[in-house]
Amino acid sequence: MTRILIVGIGALGGTIATRAINAGIPVWLATRSTESAEALRTAGLSLTGIGGSATANSLQVAAIEEYRATDKFDLILLATKAHAALEVAPLLAELLASNGTLLPIQNGSVPQILGDQLGRSIVLGGLSNLGATMVEPGVYEQRNAGHILIGELAGGVSDRVTRVTEALRGGIEIRVTPNLPGSIWAKLLLNCSVTTIGAVAGQTMRQYLTSSVGQTVFRQMYDEALSVALASGTQPQRMIVEPIPPGWQDKIVPGQEYNAWVDQIMGTYGDIKPSMLQDFERGRLTEIDFINGYVSQLGKKLGVPIAMNEATTQMVHRIEKGELRPGTERLDELALVPT
Ligand SMILES: NC(=O)c1ccc[n+]([C@@H]2O[C@H](COP(=O)([O-])OP(=O)(O)OC[C@H]3O[C@@H](n4cnc5c(N)ncnc54)[C@H](OP(=O)(O)O)[C@@H]3O)[C@@H](O)[C@H]2O)c1
Question: Could you tell me if 215 and 326 lie in one domain?
Fold first, then answer.
């Protein structure tokens, strides 16, 4: 039997845990504090939304620090936010059985950072196309019929992706790719443009793209990040759209084909309230350092211009601190960034 620990029982972790338990997969759960573990033990988990309603009781749940190095797990699915993932990862490495796998599923650069820190023989790359929200601790809503995509951080295929897929079979859909770095970048390209711009503007993508300023900032942000991805040697995978927009290499004025490409992205993301905007509203730390901040950091290392991503990262930090507020004037400021 594969012993599985899910760490971070928030929107994604709670949804995955409920589906896994309902499929008869034995999972252990780890929360940040003993109080939240106790609350989940008492109330159980309940899930509604796409995929149908489900509940799970009699949970094997404890705070992460209550797990001991003797509680070995074959698979640890790390479903906290990015900052917490980096903090807790060294402890998780101690909880892994020999040949065990740590599977982080955060947006942005977390899987690569953890792979570099702990070793790629321990860390398997993952990302979530599953969308979920937490109504309150223990109560979740699944927002789409998405899946978790896994693959080796160095690319290629391996036996352990099959083992992980088998271990979670029946719970949530797991898909495997031989080009996980390309998939991580495809998602990053959309996160650092669609999501971050919407967050600083306080608008949805459909709203901010009605202005020429919004269109300019979007194109610049995306193109910079794409240049970094390509300079790093990654070939971004198709996700919703081809990652390289029409006319990109020629740097021509956006035409009909480019606009159709943007419309395709809008079809999926146009009306979604950016998750980073929700972080601002709740006074929570964002994952900007792992999204536009990562693009900037890598771009500098590779000698690729990243002025727009860097200015946006700084702007988001100022919004987090309460020095600025989200609004369309933020886009006016970004449009003035010399690129
Ligand atoms: N939700 C989605 O639809 C979605 C989709 C794609 C990707 N993602 C990515 O998936 C990650 C998780 O997102 P989410 O929406 O599930 O976040 P979330 O709802 O905030 O859940 C994170 C959970 O981790 C817990 N946590 C924090 N520190 C911990 C620690 N040291 N040990 C154990 N648990 C800890 C938090 O508990 P406290 O609340 O007590 O701090 C919270 O329950 C993010 O990187 C996000 O970008 C999410």
Answer: yes
- Model pLDDT for residues 110-163, shown as the tens digit of each residue: 999 999 999 999 999 999 999 999 999 999 999 999 999 999 999 998 999 999
274 Cβ below 6 A of ligand 1 = no
Domain check: are 255 and 113 in the same one?
no
Domain that holds residue 297: 181-335
109 lines ligand 1 (CB under 6 A): no
Do residues 211 and 123 both lie within one domain?
no
- The tens digit of pLDDT for each residue in 306-316 reads 999 999 999 99
Ligand 1, atom 15: nearest CA belongs to which residue? 11
Boundary residue ending a domain (144, 178, 212)? 178
The number of folded domains in the chain is 2
Say if residue 79 is in the same domain as residue 196.
no
Torsion of Cα atoms, 53 then 57 then 60 then 62, to 10°: 90
DSSP 254-302: P-HHHHHHHHHHHHHHTTPPPHHHHHHHTT---SGGGTHHHHHHHHHHH
- CATH code of residue 241: 1.10.1040.10
Asked whether residue 96 falls in the same domain as residue 211, the answer is no
Give the closest residue (by CA) to ligand 1 atom 9: 106
Choice from 33, 73, 80 to test ligand 1 binding pocket (greatest atom count within 8 A of CB): 80
Residue 326 Cα, ligand 1 centroid: separation in angstroms? 23
How much is the pLDDT for 268?
A: 92
Q: What confidence score (pLDDT) does residue 254 get? A: 77
pLDDT at 251: 67
Residue 250 Cα to ligand 1 middle (Å):
40
- Positions in the chain short of pLDDT 50: none
**Is residue 22 located within the same domain as residue 156?**
yes
* Per-residue pLDDT, 157: 86
Mark whether 58 and 191 lie in a shared domain. no
CATH code assigned at 164:
3.40.50.720
Interval between CA 333 and ligand 1 midpoint (Å): 31
